[in-house]
Design goal:
Order of helices and strands: EHEEEHEEHEEHHH
CATH class of the largest domain: Alpha Beta
Structural class: alpha+beta
CATH superfamily of the largest domain: Periplasmic binding protein-like II
Radius of gyration: 18 Å
Shape: elongated
Distance between the termini: 34 Å
Number of strands: 8
Strand order of the largest sheet: 1-8-2
Length: 177
Amino acid sequence: MLAGNIQIAIAAPAAVLRANLGGSDFVYIELLAIALILSVITRDGIKSVQELRGKKIAIGNFGSGTDYAGRLVFDKLGMQVGKDIIFTQILGDSRHGLPCSNRYRRRVFSARLSPCAHTVGFRPCWIFSSVIPHFSLGYFTRRSYIRDNPRVVENSLKGLLDAPDTFGPTPRAQSNP
């Protein structure tokens, strides 16, 4: 997207915000997942957020959506990442960190994948969306692209809204149950 090879894409807020801090003119045009669909899962019996104080929690990669959302949520709970809790990254595809050995005892993980975590001994501690209302995935483009190609953007959105629900309810779908 930054190189101009594609004009409309799907991404979590962390990537779009980082690009905008670097000077891009990205803007979300539709939200695909209107809640943080992440949860903290543990294998060591932790049942409350306060019990995580002083512990390491595995996330995907530093700068990823799980890192960004985790920092937002823990900040809202009055806990500072790096001081009160420690994030440790799982290099590569973070889904691979779940079933392997006992290396990770606590994880930030997609709530949609948490049922498979149960089979290898993880239990949910809490879900991010219960702490902070925040979207986790959206359809975005450049403001300049909207200005120069309004019909393309409009037709793209129409196609997206007509497509099967892949990412969870959109605001429009939720308002019309």
